[in-house]
Amino acid sequence: MSLPCFVLLKVFRHLPQQLQELEIHVNSDPYQDDHHDHQDDPQYHIHCDADLFKSSGTVFNLRRLILNTNLNCFHHRMLIPLLRQCPDLEELMLPRIKEHIIELTQVLDSHCKRLHTLNQEDYGASLMSAGHIDALLRAFSRGFRQLHLCSHSWDWEYYILETLTTTATVNTIEVLRLSNYQRVESYHILGILRHCPRLRVFQMGVESDHHFGVDFSDLVVSMDEGWKCWDTLEVLTLKVHNKVAIGHLYLKEWKHRTALDARKLRLGLRTLPKLVTLDIRWSVMMYEWEFETVFSP
Question: InterPro entries recorded for this chain (predicted)?
């Protein structure tokens, strides 16, 4: 057994019962970890026994559990018994696990009754895969109030954002932070604003060198149609771009239409009753005069 795994298992076996916050950030050499057969190590079975915590009858007071690690030894046989003993857990960051995702989601749903925040906001591949987050969102019957998600690939973005609007979380989500998004499209983002009635904070972080985000015209049309979060939204961060390329044959008409859209956007933003923080990040495809038009008096 590698030293990080051995130490990590020791830590979990001797957690103070009164502990309320625990963060573990461990990264090992993936080659060594992948080529070490933990199943042949007798100490591994001793410390990863399914009754690791249950045997002592210990109930932990953990409110926040952050597990950011790529260790293969950290899997369901240690994670699930721990979660069963954390009835007061509120915020969770999960590592990437390869199996038993259904059992994991069932334990979270049945044993962690106060869980409301899933934090997967990390730049790396050590956290849950898109498929596992998708399964968790579908199986978590109470819905999450806060989601902090970081994209790892373009298909990840399509996968998760479409799931958000079709599960229980659509009616419970209050804070949604999306980071490192590279290929997100208008209908994904605007779908969140249109369908989430309790949304207070929506922050969309997109890589600055990518021309993806919310289309300017689509944003204006969406505001005209109405957002379910209109009366609750307090913080809004968006990246906005314009699909019209430089050298458009109808540039004069396009400028006129854009000016009208800019006026509608300005008026619409002013009518959001609880909005206190607005961060609109314009794509390099938009001209300086457009920026001034939107925010002029």
Answer: LRR_dom_sf
Q: How many residues does the chain have?
A: 297
Tokens of 25: 């950030």
Domain, as residue range, for 79 = 3-295
* CA atoms within 13 Å, Cβ hemisphere of 241: 20
- Burial, 123: exposed, middle or buried (Cβ in 10 Å; 0-12, 13-18, 19+)? exposed
**Cα 278 from Cα 67, distance rounded (Å):** 32
Quickly tell me which residue has 């049309």 as its tokens.
221
**Number of structural domains found in the chain:** 1
Q: pLDDT tens digit string along 108-138?
A: 999 999 999 999 876 555 567 777 888 888 8
Quote the strand ranges of the chain, DSSP E.
21-26, 64-69, 91-93, 117-120, 146-150, 175-181, 201-206, 214-215, 235-241, 277-282
Cβ-contact 127, 93 below 8 angstroms: yes
Q: pTM of the predicted model, to two decimals?
A: 0.82
- For CA atoms 89, 111, 202, 228, give the dihedral sign: negative
Calculate what percentage of the chain has a pLDDT beyond 90: 27
- In this structure, the number of other CB atoms found within 10 A of the CB of residue 248 comes to 11
Q: Check: CB of residue 275 under 8 Å from CB of residue 233.
A: yes
